[in-house]
Amino acid sequence: MSYCLNPNCQKPENQDSAKFCQTCNANMLVGDRYRSVTLLGQGGFGRTFLAIDELKPSKPFCVIKQFSSQGLEINQYQQAAELFQQEVIRLDELGRHSQIPELVAHYQKENCQYLVQEFISGQNLAGELKEQGAFNQHKIRQLLNNLLPVIQFIHTHNVIHRDIKPENIIRRKSPNLRIGVLTDELVLVDFGAAKYAIASSAMRVETSIGSPEFAAPEQTRGKALFNSDLYSLGVTCIHLLTQASPFELMDIDRNWVWRDYLNGNTVSNDLGKILDKLIAIVPSQRYQSADEVLKDLSPQSAIVINKDDSPQFPAISPPPSIHEDLGDGIILEMTSIPSGEFVMGSPDYEEAHENNESPQHLVKIPPFFMGTFLITQAQFRAIMNASPSYMVGGDRPVECVSWNAVVEFCTILSQKTGRKYRLPSEAEWEYACRAGTRTPFHFGDGINTDLANYDGRYIYRAGSRGEYRQTTTPVGTFPPNAFGLYDMHGNVWEWCQDFWHDDYIGAPTDGSAWERGRSSIYRVLRGGSWYGYPWYCRSAARGRGKQGDWKLYYGFRVALTL
C-alpha cells in the first residue's frame, strides 16, 4: 500500500505502484522518488510517514516528516516553520553521527515542507519500559555510556537538544551496514526542538520548549543551557529506574526523592551520586559536560567490581576453559569465546581514529578459544627451551619475539599437545577484546593506569594521568574483560595472523585471517603496549610490524579452534 500525502485527501490509501492518488489526483512521490507507505503519527505541526526510496533497488525504508501550513494562524505558522527549519539545519549538521538520524533530503511543495531522513528501526525506551518493566542499574550504566558521547558530540557543535526523554531514544533493532552499528545501539532522535547556542543569544530568554516532566528548571523558564540536556538525561534515568512520573519523584519542597520509588530495584552509591549530580536543580551544581560524567563512570565500567556491577553480556562467569599442561607445572589456559557478530573498526568521530580502522563492517565470528593471558616467558621457555625477553620474569609476557618466531612456537606447541594452536585473526582479536562493548576500551570511554599498562604520562579523553612503568607487568595484573581475557589493552603489542592492509576495504566478514591482497612482509599487531600512548590501546587501534622484526614491546597470545 502507498499513502497519499495530501492533508485534505479523504481516502489516502492507494496501490503500491500508483503514481497519482486515486481520490485526489495528488502526486504520490516526494521528490519523484520517496513513496509513503503508512502514517506513523501526527500532531503538533505535522505528520510523520514510513516511506521507501523507489530509486534504489532494495527500496530501503526512510521517514518523511511533513509540515503543512493549512489551518494555522500566522503566529502558529511562523513558530512551526521556524522549528521545522531548525530541525533540517540541525540534522544536516549532526546526521553524520551513527547515533543520530541522517538527513536524506529536504523538499518544499505547494503549502507543505518535507524532511526525509534515515529510518531508525527499533523501539523507543518508553515502549521498552512499558513492556519490560523498570531498568536495572546495569542498563542505566549502558544507557549513559552509550548516549553521553552523542550528547558531547552535539554540544561540541553548539547544539542543545532540549527534548531528551525516553520517547526520543530508540534502541536500534537491526544492523545498519551503511554506518556499521549494532542491533542494540541507542539512537537520539527528534531534533525539532534543538537550539543552536551562540554567544549573542547567551542572555536571551526564549519560549519554553521541551517536555515539562524532563526539562530542566532553567529551560522551562526559557533559558536552556548545555547541561540542561544532562539534566533531562538524568531524569530519564530515574524515570526508567522507578517507572514513576518525574513529577512524582520530587517532594513539595522540590527535593528529589527518587530512591523512595525504586520498589526493590538497587542502585550503587557511586551510580546514585552520578544521577544526583545530573539532576541537580541549580545548573552550577550539575555536571558541566558529558565528558565529566563519562570520567566519573569510567572506574565503574571496569569489569571487576562487585557482583552487582558485573556486566550482563556475555553471561559466561566463569568462562569454560582448557588447561594445557606444558610440563614442570606450567599451564596454558585457554578461554572459550562464544560465536557472535560485531562491528569491526572505529567510527570517524572516535578520538584518535585513524583511516586504517575504516570502513566499519559487520563481522560474524565462529566460536573459538583464546589465550586467557599473554604467553609468558615461562610458557615460551617450556616450548622453545629459551626466552628472548629483555624484561625478565617467568610470569611476565614474553617480548622481543618476531612474527616468524611466534609461528614456530605455535607449530611446536601443536605438535606437543595434538591441538592446532595458531595466532588469532585480527577480527577474532578485536571481537575478543571488545567482549560485547562498543566503547574505545572494553572498560569504557577512558583509560587509566589502574586498568592497563601504557605510558601514563599521556591522557586519552575521559582518562587521567598516571604511572609510566617503563616495563612490562606480570600477566593478569589488571581486570579482565567480560570474556575473562586479561591484558587486552597495553602491556605488549600482540601479533595477529593477518597481512597488513591500509584499510578494511575488501576485508573478510567471516572472522578469518586476511592473507591475500598485500605483501606478507608486514603483519598486524594489536592492543598497544607499556611503551606506547593510551590511544594505541583502543580496541580498534592497529599496528604493523615486519614479520622478521622483534622489539621490546612485541608479544602474543594464541588461539585455537576445536
Automatic annotation (TrEMBL):
Q: Does the keyword Translocase apply?
A: no
The name this protein carries in UniProt is Serine/threonine protein kinase
What is this organism's lineage? Bacteria, Bacillati, Cyanobacteriota, Cyanophyceae, Pseudanabaenales
- The domain of life is Bacteria
* Stretches assigned to the Protein kinase domain: 34-303
Q: Secretion signal: which residues? A: none
The UniProt entry, under SUPFAM superfamilies, shows: C-type lectin-like, Protein kinase-like (PK-like)
NCBIfam families according to UniProt = 4Cys_prefix_kin
Q: Which organism is it from?
A: Pseudanabaena frigida
